[in-house]
Amino acid sequence: MNLPPKVTDRAFARLNEIGAGAQGKALRVAVEGGGCSGFQYEIKLDEPAEDDLVLEGAGERVVVDSISLPFLANATIDFSEELIGARFTIENPNATSSCGCGTSFSM
To answer: What's the Cα-to-Cα distance from 23 to each of 16, 26, 59, 61, rounded to whole Å?
Structure first.
């Protein structure tokens, strides 16, 4: 059974820090064709749409459109702060391979 993606407390906390919810925005996580491995993630602040799955926490929202949802089943959306910079990350068990940049993958 496919479970919806999980969002970590750290990711919600970061959205809160940047004031996403206060601006009426949500973090959109989408999957589209392209990238060096076949698919790539698009992560941006956006308005929620009607067919989105909405994941809520800490007064913030993460949205995934219905087309991207199967690609993100059981995935974890997190926020990481590393030497290369702070960014939202996706741990996706469906990806069979991914590139070093962590933004594209194949299934």
So the answer is: 10, 9, 12, 12
Q: Hey, where are the domains in the chain?
A: 6-106
User: Tens digit of pLDDT for each residue in 44-65?
Assistant: 999 999 999 999 999 999 999 9
Distances (CA, A) of 64 to 26, 30, 79, 90: 10, 6, 16, 13
The CATH code of domain 6-106 reads 2.60.300.12
| Residue 74 per-residue DSSP state | T
Task: Give whole-number Cα distances, 16 to 25, 56, 75, in Å.
Answer: 11, 12, 21
CB atoms within 10 A of CB 39: 20
Q: What is the pTM of this model?
A: 0.87
